[in-house]
Amino acid sequence: MKSGLGFLATISLLVWTMSCKTSKVNQEAVMAGYVSGNYEIECMGTGMDGTQLIKVWGFGTDPEKAAYQARKNAVHAVIFKGINAGKPGCMTKPLVTQPGTEELHRDFFNTFFTDGGRYLSFVSMANDGTVDRIKMTSKEYKVGSVMSIRHAALRQELEAAGIIKKLGQGF
């Protein structure tokens, strides 16, 4: 009898622990459509027109969702992470450098990063559409592709929205 109660208590504890982890991931995923830090990015070069070429990886339940997520990840990295890996030339500092800006402007970024949102006007495939696809598990794919990011235009968008200061201000 005691071993049965101990077994039930252990199972209940495991179920409760898993539900806590799942709810935390789901809360993080709500913010701008991604789980923070769940992507990889590297610089591939720069363009003359204020663009940056980056290789970015996205994760999803199928290759199409992972490729779509990679677009969000590319723009998110330029705004919040910067691009430190890969070839020289890309902006290593993120556009947003003030801590807490993402939370402070949550409504803007949730709208900006919605599926089909404004972020899509700043990212496009840079090659012939070839992607690297890796099946991670039976339910997860990792897809990498080279994207062109309109860095200068993205900066202007964030300046106009009052998210970041204009270049030359604050000195």
Describe the model.
The longest helix has 29 residues, at 2-30. This protein is 40% helix and 22% strand. The protein has 5 helices and 5 strands, in the order αββαααβββα. The relative contact order is 0.17. The chain has 171 residues and is of the alpha+beta class. The N and C termini lie far apart (73 Å).
Quick tags:
171 residues, alpha+beta, globular
Number of helices, where a helix is a run of at least 4 consecutive DSSP H or I residues: 5
**How many E-type strands?**
5
Q: Biggest sheet, in brief?
A: 5 strands, antiparallel
Structural class computed from helices and strand pairing: alpha+beta
The H/E string reads HEEHHHEEEH
Summarize the entry for a quick read.
With 171 residues, the protein is of the alpha+beta class. It has five helices and five strands, in the order H-E-E-H-H-H-E-E-E-H.
How would you summarize the topology of this molecule?
Blueprint: H1 2-30, E1 40-46, E2 51-60, H2 63-81, H3 101-104, H4 106-112, E3 123-125, E4 132-137, E5 140-150, H5 151-160
Antiparallel strand pairs: 1-2, 2-5, 3-5, 4-5
